[in-house]
Design goal:
By secondary structure, this protein is α+β, with helices and mostly antiparallel strands. Helix content is about 30%, strand content about 20%.
């Protein structure tokens, strides 16, 4: 008796696996579109500390801070930075600047992911940091507005009128906007999410 599966059986098995296996590929273009969809909906900048649900917690869409633009856009692709940052911080708290900057002794899922320094550290730990300045649509950029004050936004696929600079989708005070500000402030980081970055499994 033949102990090996037939060619037909192998083909059937591979086809079954391809149907059952979850397929996910991060899309920079979709990140831009999902960030742009917040324009006209997020109208205010509000940095107040707020208790939110976990995971997928959020403040009302009409308000938020610069990090919320990135958080909300990534969630449309199944990537919940609140959960990802929190789970990494629970295991590696001292790798993040919370204790030195804000005096925290343990993670806080209400606010940790909404702080630019924490997102920078998380992106670095994931290997998303770039050392060049070859900006592409869907890249995430961080700046220092003034000493100790960080900012974050998403590089757009639209250019300034001269065609020399890509615009940025961000919230710096007047809600989510798409503006020519890429070189307005001191750039502190450029991050490009890997195409095969996978979302966390649903929270149990």
């Amino acid at each position: 008796m033949n102990k090996f599966p037939s060619l037909r059986a192998l083909i059937f098995l591979l086809a079954l696996l391809s149907v059952c296996a979850p397929v996910f590929a991060f899309s920079p273009q979709r990140l831009v579109q999902d960030a742009r969809s917040q324009i006209g909906k997020t109208l205010h900048y509000d940095p107040a500390y707020t208790k939110i649900a976990y995971p997928m917690g959020d403040v009302p869409l009409v308000r938020g801070v610069c990090t919320d633009v990135v958080i909300r856009a990534l969630r449309r692709q199944g990537v919940d930075l609140q959960q990802k940052v929190h789970e990494d911080m629970r295991k590696n708290f001292r790798e993040y600047p919370n204790e030195s900057r804000w005096g925290l002794k343990k993670p806080d899922a209400n606010i940790d992911h909404r702080r630019v320094p924490n997102l920078r550290r998380y992106f670095e730990r994931q290997g998303y940091a770039r050392t060049d300045r070859n900006f592409r649509p869907g890249d995430i950029v961080t700046w220092e507005l003034r000493p100790g004050v960080g900012h974050i936004g998403i590089v757009s696929d639209k250019e300034d009128p001269s065609g020399k600079r890509l615009l940025v989708i961000h919230n710096i005070g007047d809600g989510t906007q798409e503006e020519d500000v890429l070189y307005e402030f001191t750039i502190t980081g450029l991050y490009r999410i890997a195409p095969d970055a996978r979302p966390l499994p649903p929270h149990q």
